[in-house]
């Protein structure tokens, strides 16, 4: 009985670690994407473009 309990606890811990790893990966990817969008928006000129003025 103790072996089954230990196996269940270990399985739950491994499952939780997998979920935390997935959440960490998603957080890093979303942060990189948001940073890339902010950088792209900062590089664009804020005024009218040359094509619009002509």
Give a written overview of the molecule:
This protein has 54 residues and is mainly alpha-helical. Helices cover 85% and strands 0% of the residues. It is built from two helices and no strands. The model has no long low-confidence stretch (mean pLDDT 81).
Q: Roughly how many Å is the radius of gyration?
A: 24 Å
Alpha carbon gap, first and last residue: 82 Å
Sheet with the most strands, sense and barrel status: none
Rough shape? rod-shaped
Relative strand content: under 5%
Runs with pLDDT <50, length 5+? none
Task: Give the integer mean of the pLDDT values.
Answer: 81
- What structural class do you assign from the helix and strand content? mainly alpha
Work out the helix count: 2
Question: Would you report the number of β strands?
Answer: 0
Name the helix and strand elements from N-terminus to C-terminus, one letter apiece: HH
Q: How much helix, percentage-wise, in residues?
A: over 70%
In short, what is this structure?
The chain contains 2 helices and no strands. With 54 residues, it is mostly helical.
Defining traits:
single chain, 54 residues, mainly alpha, 0% strand
Secondary-structure map with pairings?
Blueprint: H1 2-43, H2 50-53
